[in-house]
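Technical annex, item 7. During the second reporting period the consortium partners agreed on a shared format for inverse folding records so that results from different sites could be compared directly. Each record opens with the tokenized structure and is followed by the designed sequence. A conforming record, contributed by the partner at site C, is shown below for reference.
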């Protein structure tokens, strides 16, 4: 039997090769990750539910492989699933008490595609309630901790998926990204996260936050692994009215082109003036400057881009998102969906609804519902929601103008490294600013990726480099992201994630020695 400690550190691509050659079995791989979850998740709290069917699924994959059945590239590889996605065999709570214990009668399309490709779901990962938050502290089931330093946040809302991958509890995970909920956690946990082009991956079965912004995407430890997972989940879904009918290229092939060398030669890279500068941590700016030098050294042309509407993107986003959220969450009314709380002495339907929503929703959800309802109310719709949609159009135009001059845009994936747990939980405005660099891509529907770009000098915690490409050009992200990832790791002499603290030990500190 292969050594479990080495199995959990293999990439999904390496695991797929070893599984295909039957050097290792899916049961061994899944058991190694279940053991890892049992050993460290008490400290990390990346998972809300661990599947009791994972080993049986893995055994079935092994049986069919031995029988000579045709298997997909990732067959037998385990994966974690963000709790925003419906799963027919596990609770799907979206991190909220109002859905506690709810097991859906169907799978989300992306989950069904995982099963069809013979990946093995390990369980459901923690998240900010209904994906509202940037730290995974707003989960009704307690916060997730950053594996690099357990007193720090793992980002949000998908901190559970990012932490599970960073802690070697899973080689792959699915997340959702409404304003950066895949990319910002990726940046602060040293993982790779991708927000696909809006409509490129089905949202059917993803519990909605803001329907015009939400997008499901991959989380991994390498660009190639994210590409392999993206190839599984991409494609049109007739059950999703926003799903694109495009024929997508192989993203794994695109990533391999980046790894082949020379992919950055002649590439025009735009640096958005509005996505850097004041409010960015010194260590983040230092690593970003080094990444730009690396791009230039590899033959890319770095061009400064002015996108004036980006300054207003975060304000527009926090009107559009709450407005859509207040509409989407109206269904949790004690009658149609979710828990029901009957007040003492019973009362009217309105009384039951009020009691249910008071008990079932957390503070951030209530805050955004109130804000969104106000923005949509008579007399304020044009002043707030309507104006925000006009800003959204300006953001889209700025992207279009930028992509006439450059092939991709780059920025830090987050303005700071992971902040201490509890530091910003009572300061929502400060919390919202963590999505400063990621929000524009969601407003415009363009794809984005975060790639680890080193550790900050002042705290030894991960930073992330973000690439954004035109809509439908996700392949560019994988080619250029893989090329930069390879160049960075060649300079470091190791992968960034290999520097993460050993969670098996009792001492949990950031990797401040030999900061990259």
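Designed sequence (site C submission):
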């Amino acid at each position: 039997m292969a050594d479990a400690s080495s199995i959990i550190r293999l990439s999904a691509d390496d695991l797929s090769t070893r599984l295909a050659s039957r050097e290792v079995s899916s049961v061994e791989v899944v058991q190694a990750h279940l053991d890892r979850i049992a050993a460290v998740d008490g400290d990390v709290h990346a998972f809300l539910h661990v599947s009791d069917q994972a080993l049986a699924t893995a055994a079935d994959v092994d049986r069919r492989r031995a029988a000579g059945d045709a298997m997909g590239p990732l067959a037998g590889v385990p994966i974690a699933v963000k709790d925003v996605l419906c799963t027919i065999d596990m609770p799907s709570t979206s991190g909220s008490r109002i859905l506690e214990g709810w097991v859906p009668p169907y799978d989300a399309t992306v989950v069904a595609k995982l099963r069809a490709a013979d990946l093995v779901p390990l369980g459901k990962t923690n998240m900010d309630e209904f994906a509202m938050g940037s730290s995974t502290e707003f989960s009704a089931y307690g916060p997730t901790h950053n594996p690099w330093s357990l007193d720090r946040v793992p980002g949000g809302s998908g901190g559970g998926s990012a932490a599970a991958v960073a802690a070697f509890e899973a080689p792959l995970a699915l997340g959702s990204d409404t304003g950066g909920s895949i990319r910002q956690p990726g940046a602060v946990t040293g993982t790779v996260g991708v927000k696909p082009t809006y409509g490129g991956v089905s949202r059917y079965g993803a519990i909605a936050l803001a329907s015009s912004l939400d997008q499901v995407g991959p989380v991994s430890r390498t660009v190639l692994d994210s590409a392999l997972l993206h190839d599984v989940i991409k494609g049109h879904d007739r059950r999703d009215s926003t799903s694109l009918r495009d024929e997508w290229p192989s993203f794994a092939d695109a990533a391999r082109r980046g790894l082949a060398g020379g992919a950055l030669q002649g590439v025009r890279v735009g640096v958005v003036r509005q996505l850097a500068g004041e409010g960015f941590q010194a260590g983040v700016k230092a690593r970003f400057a080094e990444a730009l030098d690396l791009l230039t050294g590899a033959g890319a042309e770095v061009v400064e881009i002015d996108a004036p509407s980006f300054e207003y993107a975060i304000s527009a986003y926090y009107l559009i998102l709450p407005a859509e959220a207040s509409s989407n969450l109206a269904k949790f009314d004690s009658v149609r969906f979710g828990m029901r709380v009957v007040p003492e002495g019973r009362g009217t339907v309105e009384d039951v609804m009020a009691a249910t929503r008071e008990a079932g929703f957390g503070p951030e959800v209530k805050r955004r519902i109130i804000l969104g309802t106000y923005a949509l109310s008579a007399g304020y719709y044009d002043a707030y929601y309507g104006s925000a949609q006009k800003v959204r159009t300006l953001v889209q135009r700025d992207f279009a103008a930028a992509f006439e001059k450059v092939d991709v845009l780059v920025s830090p994936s987050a303005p700071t490294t992971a902040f201490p747990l509890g530091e910003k939980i009572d300061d929502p405005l400060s919390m919202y600013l963590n999505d400063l660099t990621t929000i524009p891509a969601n407003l415009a529907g363009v794809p984005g990726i975060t790639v680890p770009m080193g550790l900050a000098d002042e705290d030894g915690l991960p930073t992330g480099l973000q690439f954004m490409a035109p809509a439908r050009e996700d392949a560019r992200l994988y080619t250029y992201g893989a090329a930069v990832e390879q160049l960075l790791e060649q300079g470091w002499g190791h992968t960034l994630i290999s520097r993460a603290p050993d969670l098996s030990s009792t001492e949990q500190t950031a990797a401040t020695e030999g900061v990259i």
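The mean pLDDT is 95. The radius of gyration is 22 Å. All partners now use this format for quarterly exchanges.
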